[in-house]
Design brief:
Length: 400
């Protein structure tokens, strides 16, 4: 009994293999495959169902404005010349599916109109699945590189909308177009989207736009939001701290002589940091990013404080010389005999003071050093307030 079952199974496999081989040879003998003729003989447009599923964001080059997007692309159309009889009474009973080489069939060509690579025509793989009713299914997973015009004004708190423009055609001029029921919903597309360390996919929209009379193309719009944690730590925080470090120059004592060198070191470090940030930005920008304005404002603040502190250093030096001169000229120069002379005053009498001594007691003289200290304190407070208003305004605009 077991031997009979094994023999029957082997016989069925041989029959199925034979039917599969015969069907393959029969289809290859048709003019449809020999001439790779499209449906309708190339005289009518071919309706092609399209499903494009973004899988993940591989890379987004901000400087070149190029998006690298791994996708899953599915094309399906009906070719009556590839149908066969799969009914129980037919020669190919229960044989509903067959795989053929794409090189043997007519395959619509898919072009990325805004592609960033030299070859904008996608490779449609090596095999195609053919059904008994003439339907043909091709599924590939291409890496699509396309350009995206990015708005970097509020970088790194930006949200970008990148459009992938797909055009389906053939060497015969037959145009492919999608059907509404074959497009996946935005929720399912987002659900199939893999995680990315830099970007979050917020929405996907697909629509068909007409380019010329009877000629249309597909546009897939991806709404991407940048994750800001890395950029806040590596860009925003250093710039803000540097801007507040500029105001600390008024806390450094003028006598130390380190104020100008302190500001110059901050200015040079800012210049190096600006050159690093510009490498991450596109060269042609319609508007200046706010993060660059924050950097340039910090550099301008350092440059202004260098001139201001240079003036204050010169002023402090003059005050020091003036104080020394006043101390020397105000010291008493009295002869020995005059110093030993004593005047007998009544016990409870009040010593008379001349007008100059009285004036000195009423309004004691303020030294130049004290004036400089007061001015430094005022400048520190003013610069701290102005810098805080500037930083808060820029950051609030970026995060709106």
């Amino acid at each position: 009994m077991l031997a009979f079952s094994i023999l029957a199974t082997l016989l069925c496999d041989v029959i199925a293999t034979s039917s599969h081989y015969n069907l393959t040879q029969e289809l290859r003998s048709r003019d449809t495959i020999k001439g790779q003729v499209p449906p309708g003989g190339g005289m009518t447009p071919v309706v092609v169902d399209v499903a494009l599923i973004p899988m993940n964001i591989l890379d987004i080059d901000d400087a070149k404005q190029v998006v690298s997007l791994p996708t899953s692309l599915i094309l399906m159309w009906t070719h009556p010349g590839l149908a066969w009889d799969s009914s129980p009474e037919g020669p190919y009973a229960k044989l509903n599916v067959l795989e053929l080489k794409t090189q043997e069939l007519w395959i619509p060509k898919v072009h990325i109109l805004n592609g960033a690579s030299e070859d904008r025509t996608l490779d449609m793989g090596s095999t195609a699945t053919v059904f008994s009713n003439g339907s043909v299914l091709v599924s590939v997973s291409p890496l699509m590189k396309f350009t995206c015009k990015m708005d970097m004004r509020v970088y790194p708190f930006d949200t970008q909308e990148c459009g992938l423009v797909v055009f389906i055609t053939s060497t015969y001029g037959a145009q492919g177009r999608k059907k509404k029921d074959f497009i996946m919903s935005s929720e399912s597309l987002i659900g199939s989207f893999g995680s990315n360390s830099e970007w979050t996919l917020e929405n996907v929209e697909s629509e068909e736009k007409e380019m010329l009379a009877g000629v249309s193309f597909l546009v897939y719009t991806l709404k991407l939001r940048r994750k800001t944690t890395f950029y806040v730590i590596s860009f925003i925080v250093p710039i803000v701290l540097t801007s507040y470090m500029n105001t600390l120059v008024f806390v450094i004592p003028a006598e130390s002589g380190e104020r100008v060198s302190y500001l110059v070191s901050i200015f040079v470090s800012n210049a190096v940091f600006v050159s690093f940030c510009t490498d991450q930005m596109p060269q042609g920008l319609d508007s200046v990013p706010l993060v660059m304005m924050l950097q340039l404002g910090t550099m301008a603040q350092s440059a202004f404080f260098i001139f201001l502190v240079s003036y204050l250093q010169r002023r402090s030096y003059r005050h020091q010389n003036h104080d020394i001169t006043d101390d020397v000229t105000s010291s008493p120069s009295v002869s020995k005999d005059a110093s030993e002379a004593k005047v007998a005053w009544p016990k409870n009498a009040v010593h008379p003071l001349d007008d100059e001594d009285a004036g000195k007691q009423k309004s004691p003289r303020v030294s130049g050093k004290e004036k400089d200290a007061q001015l430094d304190f005022i400048l520190f407070l003013v610069s701290l307030v102005i810098n805080s208003v500037f930083v808060v305004t820029i950051l609030a605009t970026m995060m709106q």
